[in-house]
Design brief:
1 helix; about 70% helix
Length: about 80
């Protein structure tokens, strides 16, 4: 049936059906985007934790591992 032969009610019904179809696709797309954002946020949290651990390890490496020579006990052969 072409648009010229449709009654105003049929035309309105078709337009509503098209809008409902578009809305369903948009709702599905929004849900997919939401899931993608949730996944990315989880990845960001994991990466943030990794960076924090690496920063802690780096700080530990920067601290001297040797105590002051005046605090060390002399070797036993002295």
């Amino acid at each position: 049936m072409n648009d010229k032969a449709m009654t105003p009610l049929e035309s309105a019904t078709n337009r509503i059906e098209e809008l409902e179809t578009k809305m369903m696709f948009q709702e599905d797309l929004i849900e997919q985007l939401n899931q993608s954002i949730i996944s990315q946020q989880q990845d960001i949290r994991k990466l943030t934790q990794i960076i924090e651990r690496m920063n802690t390890q780096l700080e530990d490496l920067r601290q001297p591992n040797v105590i002051d020579a005046s605090l060390e006990t002399p070797p036993p052969h002295y």
